[in-house]
Design brief:
alpha/beta, Undecaprenyl pyrophosphate synthetase, 13% strand, globular
Length: 258
């Protein structure tokens, strides 16, 4: 009984708490690009054994549309969501197949809203044909909101290797020899061949579940990013948690190496 009363009081106070955080935010410092490691789905399922979700992944997937709405409100331009890493392919075939199905359903749900341009970033050749073809043929949305990168079959080291390969293959196709290609290789050239080419680098990276590491997420792009680690599992991630991340970001002095 007492526990229920406490929960009711907290629920009643949250709108006021959110208003206080928003009042402290400097929206002129809102990050253009936010990257998110959606971590903690399986631990959420273990902590909620009555959940009927597939190891918490469906519950986590249902949070994505809500989260993107918060990003629209905050005027974020680009969001990169890490849905599946290259390391995840080491999981059992049964778990991996279930996860891929959820990811496919999630992409369909995002498309159905008609709100956001969706771009798949990752090694799509690692995915089953039905999913890689779906991701390779995502239609553009005219006057869409946040540009959403869904990182699927993604690994930061793999991305850098693919970028260098893409650069060398392009130079070779235009008649350059290896010596000339090596001489022209620089930071700007590599950036042109990243999965996120043409987009701003992420100013803010968020990881849920309490883990304080990037695990290879956007290795190249995160050189000057600010990091925010949240204790909540991804399915439990709330608007107030997102606002806290934005507030923390807006209060930091970003010297950018100076």
């Amino acid at each position: 009984m007492l526990s229920s009363i406490r929960k009711a009081i907290k629920s009643a106070l949250y709108p006021f708490y959110e208003w206080r955080i928003v009042s402290d935010l400097d929206f002129s410092k809102t990050p253009r690009h936010v990257g998110v490691i959606l971590d903690g789905n399986r631990r959420f399922a273990k902590a909620n054994p009555s959940s009927l979700d597939t190891k918490g992944h469906r519950r986590g997937a249902s949070k994505i549309v809500e989260f993107l709405g918060w990003c629209d409100e905050a005027k974020v331009e680009v969001v990169t969501l890490w849905l599946l890493s290259t390391e995840n392919f080491k999981r059992t075939p049964e778990e991996l197949d279930g996860l891929l199905k959820i990811i496919g359903d999630t992409v369909d749900e995002l498309r159905a809203t008609g709100k956001w341009n969706i771009k798949a970033v990752g090694a799509l050749e690692l995915l089953p044909p039905w999913l890689s073809e779906k991701l390779a043929n995502l239609p553009p949305v005219i006057n869409g909101g946040v540009e959403v990168n869904v990182a699927i079959g993604y690994g930061g080291r793999r991305e850098i290797v693919d970028a260098v390969k893409g650069y060398l293959q392009d130079k070779s196709a235009h008649g350059a020899n290896l010596e000339d290609a090596a001489a022209g290789l620089n930071v700007e050239e590599v950036s042109k061949y990243l999965y996120t080419a043409g987009q701003p680098d992420p100013e803010l990276l968020i990881r849920t579940s309490g883990e304080q590491r990037l695990g290879g997420f956007l290795l190249w792009q995160s050189a000057l990013s600010e990091f925010y680690f949240c204790e909540a599992y991804w399915p439990d991630f709330r608007r107030v948690d997102f606002l806290r991340a934005l507030r923390a970001y807006s209060q930091r002095q970003r010297r950018l190496g100076a």
